[in-house]
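Late entry, written up from scratch paper. The run itself happened at the end of the previous shift, but nothing got recorded in the book at the time, so transcribing now.
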Amino acid sequence: MDTIGNTLRHAREQKGVSLADVARTTKVKYEILERIEADDTASLVSPTYTRGFIKLYAEYLVLDGKAFAEIGRAHV
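Output as recorded:
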């Protein structure tokens, strides 16, 4: 089973977008996006903010941000 981080990373790579591009457009710090892709969300600010970051990232990739945020609820 793929994780949220792996799924987002794979979608980003398929679109040919760098993590820096995602950070610049979404205004989510590069380091936070790195942690999301590494499924290392326990060290982030709060579960609520983390779900929001996941939602923004997924929406940037034209994925269902709300669905990713709900999945993230169980893993954050």
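The CA atoms of residues 2 and 20 lie 23 Å apart.
(Scratch paper discarded after transcription.)
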